[in-house]
Amino acid sequence: MLGLIKNMKKILFIFTLFMAMSAFAIGSAVSPLASETGQAGSAVAHEQDMAAAPASFLQMEITSTCTEKGALFRIINRGSKWPRNGVLHVYFADDQSSMTRRSMRLASNQKVSFVISNNKSSGRPVGMWIEPQWYKREFVYDAKSDC
Q1: Given this structure, which CATH class describes domain 2-145?
Q2: Whether the predicted model's global pTM rises above the 0.70 cut
Q3: 28 secondary structure, DSSP code
């Protein structure tokens, strides 16, 4: 199990590095909305202002562990300080229904951990995803736990 967790950490790190390099290669000529929708010029002024700022992509180390109390999630921001808040979403992973969400802003190397209790999860798998407010990020669970 420990080997699987270490492999997942490596995969997540490589994925975030790949995404950062991909975005750098695309350049700043395309706004985040245009790159997501394929419709250039469809961004409103607020989103264009956001696109003009240098991108700061998430670089996180996220682990999930089963404890006697429930699913323990640990997040470490391995990148720079977040320029804006991000929203941490927690879902029931089997049907993507929302359990809770929390707005947060992490400093460089800041660590956050939380437990989803066995009572709250009711034996269902739990997934979490961080949605940055400074760029659009595809929805894919950052971590899952099936305790």
Answers
A1: mainly beta
A2: no
A3: S
Cβ–Cβ under 8 Å, residues 85 and 134: no
What are the residue ranges spanned by the domains of the chain? Answer: 2-145
Average pLDDT over residues 54-58: 67
* Integer Cα distance of 38 and 66 in angstroms: 41
Neighbour count for residue 62 (Cβ, 10 Å)? 21
Contact 82, 106 (CB under 8 A): yes
Q: Which of 10-14, 24-28, 105-109 is predicted with the least confidence, judged by mean pLDDT?
A: 24-28
In the numeric block, which tokens belong to residue 137? 């990020």
CB 124 within 8 A of CB 94: yes
Number of other residues whose CB lies within 10 A of the CB of residue 68: 6
Tokens of 45: 């002024």
Which one is predicted more confidently, 46 or 1?
1
CA-nearest of 97, 83, 70 to 133 is 83
